[in-house]
């Protein structure tokens, strides 16, 4: 299941793509999401505004990545709180933001997949 999430696969059949894009990691264009699974017809967005909640997932991901980045980056500096670390964190989070947007939606679909249909 984790592999299906990371490879952008349908939670119902594990074959169709959720985002109509081959690469969900280093892709900075606007996400192109399928409304229904192209393989089994599973409805990804079960109601209007369904993905509003995915923003909370995205927020959680961002905070976790910020903390991890800080822990890694701080080992390279003598000061515990060097201002350059903040720059590094901001840069990393900016790079990850489009990936987070996709991942949070995929996670959100997986969270509620059992309630659809
Ligand atoms: Zn499917």
Verbal overview:
47% of the residues lie in helices and 0% in strands. The protein has 117 residues and is mainly alpha-helical. It has one domain (2-115). Helix 2 (54-74) runs antiparallel to helix 3. The two termini are 19 Å apart. The chain has helices at 2-6, 54-74, 83-111. It contains 3 helices and no strands. The protein is elongated, with a radius of gyration of 17 Å. The model has no long low-confidence stretch (mean pLDDT 90). Zinc ion binds at residues 10, 12-13, 15-16, 37, 39-40, 42.
Strand and helix map with partners:
Elements: H1 2-6, H2 54-74, H3 83-111
| Binned strand content | under 5%
Q: Quote the distance from N terminus to C terminus.
A: 19 Å
Q: What's the rounded overall pLDDT mean?
A: 90
**What's the helix count?**
3
- What small molecules does the structure contain? zinc ion
Q: Helicity level, as a percent range? A: 40-55%
Question: What is this structure, in a nutshell?
Answer:
The protein is an all-alpha fold and 117 residues long. It is built from three helices and no strands. The structure holds zinc ion (ZN).
List descriptors:
single chain, 117 residues, mainly alpha, 3 helices, 0% strand, elongated, binds zinc ion
